[in-house]
Amino acid sequence: MNASESKMALMISPEEIQKRVSEMGQEISGKFAGKDPIFIGVLNGSFMFMADLLRAISIDCEMDFIKVRSYVGKKSSGTIRLIKDISAEVTDRHVVLVEDIIDSGHTIRFLMERIGSAAPKSISIATFLIKHEVAKIDFTIDFIGFEIPPEFVVGYGLDFNQKLRHLNGVYRLEGDLVK
Fold first, then answer.
1. Is residue 75 within 8 Å of residue 66, measured between CB atoms?
2. Count of CB atoms within 10 A of residue 100's CB?
């Protein structure tokens, strides 16, 4: 499947994305001024959001990445697998986890526990998208780009079987694209 043969509807335009990411960068810069936080992006989905977010931040910071897998196609596997761990030291540091999307909440819970076990000074979460209707979380999401309904979306780093990440907007997949 590629963008030209799929049925998609624009949900969030590139302009809306850039405006909101810029606002989030300002919010995060204000909260962490003088604190030298480390941003940990969750691969692969967060890479576009994290790149834009870090360009919108006006404070000194460090970055690293972690990679987990929990999806196959459009369905969560229910199991979180650590594919690549962080290489930076986070003990006694302010950590900002950068997610592309919080859906069920299982992945972010796993990451909070994993990073929390290293005794950081604080952990904050910045997510590009959240599906509040289905997220089962009992902790605060500090910075939210957009709240969306429980639909499958692609673009701006979000994929369908590793495809469609390159789209500069967020699109809802429509119809029976996945069997």
1. no
2. 25
- The CATH T-level fold of domain 8-29+36-173 is Rossmann fold (3.40.50)
Taking the C-alpha atoms of residue 154 and residue 164, their distance in angstroms, rounded to an integer, is 6
* Dihedral sign computed on CA atoms, order 116, 118, 121, 126: negative
Residue 72 makes CB contacts below 8 A (sequence gap 6+) with none
| Domain residue ranges in the chain | 8-29+36-173
Residues carrying an active site annotation: 103
Q: What percentage of the chain's residues is helix, strand, coil (to nearest 5)?
A: 20, 35, 40
pTM listed for this prediction: 0.89
The DSSP letter of residue 155 is B
Instruction: Tell me the pLDDT tens digit for each residue of 102-151.
Output: 998 889 999 999 999 999 999 999 999 999 888 888 889 999 999 999 99
